[in-house]
Amino acid sequence: xxxxxxxxxxxxxxxxxxxxxxxxxxxxxxxxxxxxxxVGLDPDAFVQDSLSRSVRGVLRGLHLRSGAGEAKLVRxxxxxxxxxxxxxxxxxxxxxxxxxxxxxxxxQATLYIPAGCAHGFQALTETAxxxxxxxxxxxxxxxxxxxxxxxxxxxxxxxxxxxMSQRDREAPSLAEVLKHREG
Length: 183
Description:
Elements: E1 2-5, E2 13-16, E3 20-22, E4 25-27, H1 33-38, E5 48-54, E6 59-65, E7 72-78, E8 80-87, E9 98-104, E10 110-113, E11 117-123, E12 128-134, E13 143-145, H2 166-169, H3 174-182
Antiparallel strand pairs: 1-2, 2-10, 3-4, 5-12, 6-11, 6-13, 7-10, 7-12, 8-9, 8-11
């Protein structure tokens, strides 16, 4: 497994496994505590695993947590997603930086997203399963959502949106979220 820094988001990493393929399919390690530790992360900090299943065109996000935030490892275990990270940490050298990834079940790459960054994705295949390993138990009172189509972010979503939650549809702009965080 190889860990690569994400230049557009300070503290973010892409973990790429080495699959072993043969006539049966493939096998790969999707989490390795030693590799995670080698980039300065605590592998024991993750306390919750979650999974979402989405159909083609579904958009989830942009989400983040208030308070201490939430760091997470994200992987598309089946299908393919267009994944987005936005750095919203005011003290970060990559503040307001954006990074885009195509995560897929073929590669099983895992993206580490530091606390304080917004995250979202769009399913590119008929079925896309996305796994999350999160460093804090979920508290709905800390949920923050930013409009996926905010012109300031200009995220190049690859497909028309076929479905999204009401919360995501009604999300405020980035400017509104930042103003609320400062106030």
